[in-house]
Amino acid sequence: xxxxxxxxxxxxxxxxxxxxxxxxxxxxxxxxxxxxxxxxxxxxxxxxxxxxxxxxxxxxxxxxxxxxxxxxxxxxxxxxxxxxxxxxxxxxxxxxxxxxxxxxxxxxxxxxxxxxxxxxxxxxxxxxxxxxxxxxxxxxxxxxxxxxxxxxxxxxxxxxxxxxxxxxxxxxxxxxxxxxxxxxxxxxxxxxxxxxxxxxxxxxxxxxxxxxxxxxxxxxxxxxxxxxxxxxxxxxxxxxxxxxxxxxxxxxxxxxxxxxxxxxxxxxxxxxxxxxxxxxxxxxxxxxxxxxxxxxxxxxxxxx
Length: 304
Ligand code: MG
Description:
The chain has 304 residues and is mainly beta. The chain has a single domain, classed as Neuraminidase, CATH 2.120.10. The chain has one helix at 139-142, and strands at residues 7-9, 25-29, 34-40, 45-50, 55-60, 66-70, 76-81, 87-91, 96-100, 106-110, 112-113, 116-117, 124-126, 132-135, 159-162, 169-173, 179-184, 190-195, 207-214, 217-226, 235-237, 243-247, 250-254, 260-265, 272-276, 282-287, 290-295.
C-alpha cells in the first residue's frame, strides 16, 4: 500500500504536501449526512453535523471516541469557531445562525433579513474583525429531509455579514444561485464562495467564485474554479492560501491561482472539511456517512 492509493497528484507541487506514509483514516461511520466540521484546539475535539439525523457529533482526539454533542441540533449544517473560541452554527431547522456561549447557552445571532426569515443558513466563517459571514441557500427548506419544508420568504439565496458591534445583518453577495461553502484568503483580501446552483438550475456551472474584500464590502466575483467531479460544497484554506475543497470523489486541492494540484481520495462523497490537531496539520473530512482524517505536510490557516 502506498500513499498513491490515497492521493492523486495532478500537479507535481502536490507531492510535497503529503508524506509517503500518510493514510486517510476513517474515524467514525454511521452518519446520514456528515457536514460542518469545526476544530476546538483547547479541548482537542472536533464537532460536526449529521444534518438529517438532527444532531451534532463530537470526536475526541485524545482517545478517538465519538459521542453526541447536541441532539436535537436544529438540523445543523456548517460550523466554525469564532475568535473567542465559541461554536458558531448554521441551522437549517432553526433557520438561523446560532452561537454556543462559554456557559453552554445557545443564542441566535441571525434569523431574519429585513424582517423576513432566512432560508436555511448553510456555512459560515468568522473574519478577524469578528464579523460573521454566512451563506443562505434553500436546501433546508426545499424538503423535510434536512430541515423543514417551507417557502422562501426572501426569495433569493444570498451571502450575509453580521456586524460584530451592532449585530446588524447586511446582504453582501446577492447574485449567486445557491451560495454554499465560503472562506477568506490568508490576508482576507479575497472571499471564495462555492455555488451549488446546479442542484436547482440545469447547466449552472459547478463553480467557486472569488470576490475582492474591502472591509465589510465585496466586489468582483469572477469564476475561480470549476469542480472536476461533482460540486464544491464546504472548504478550508491552508497557511499558503491553497483551497482544500469538497468534491464528489474526495478533497480537491487548488492553488491560489486556480490550478487543481491534486486530490485526497475519499471513498464517499465529501461535503466539507477543516484543519485541526495540535499542529493544525490534520485535515478532517466529512463524507456522507463518515468522518475521515489525514495528516498533511502543511498546516491549515489558523482563524482562531
Ligand atoms: Mg454546505
